[in-house]
Amino acid sequence: MKMNVYQVKLTTHDFLFFVTRELRVGVVEKYINNTALLYAINIFSPVHRVVSGTRPYYEEDWSKFSIYATPAKLLHDRETVKISYNSVDEDIAFKMEEERKRAFPKYGAYQMFPPDTQFFFYTIGGKGPETIRLGKKSCICRLKYEKLKVESIKRGEFTCSHPINPRHMPTDFTIKEGTLIPTPPIPLFDNVTARGEHIIAEDGGRKHYIAIPDKTLFNGVFYGNR
Fold first, then answer.
1. What are phi and psi for residue 52, nearest 5 degrees?
2. What is the DSSP string of the chain?
3. pLDDT tens figures, 143-159
4. Alpha-carbon distance 111 to 116, whole Å?
5. Which residue in 22, 60, 80, 193 is deepest, having the highest Cβ count within 10 Å?
């Protein structure tokens, strides 16, 4: 039985909002960290977390996922829009109540991706749902899956077709060069040349080079004949 590999196109149906870093304005990178994608794609997994305390449970959850998703990258160049907000700081609100004085709103702005923004990523192990929610306001996103033909699995040097989450790669996987992308909770690398185990797949005209994650961390994913 062969592994199932898909190229996925994600299309936003609302404003997609998350903060990569805050420099007076909440700034978003043109990437979606696969930490969020893994939970969204594996909606039918045994993992169902709403509130689980103050510490993350990423490593405990990874082994329960049956689908691995790579980080997503903007498919076409698309400008973000800046949306302003105002709010009353909690400390000022309490002080206002105690002293019966006026509180002045706090003003700020966030960058957001507008509706109909498209990203792409890959999945290993199968298809997820066709609708997911992402970001701080649970933006509705539609997913379109294209099954790729797996030509081979090789170990060696290759140029990766997608961004890399280094925390998900096995210990013998080496990134020889790439661009660091500051995307919490784990920085990503793009434009990567690496050495390690990878999938070579094709869609009828183009080859795709997809890094295989650490199988001991994501041991619920089917990687092909065992």
1. -130, 30
2. -PPPEEEEEEEESS-B---SEEESEEE--SEE-HHHHHHHHTTTSS---S---SS--HHHHHTT-S-EEPPEEESS----EEEEEEE--HHHHHHHHHHT---PPEEEEEEEBPTT-EEEEEEESS---SEEEETTTTEEEEEEEEEEEEEEEEEEEEE-SS-B-GGGS-TT-EEEEEEEE--TTS-EEEEEEEEEEEEEEESSS-EEEEE---TTTSTTS--S--
3. 999 999 999 999 999 99
4. 15
5. 80
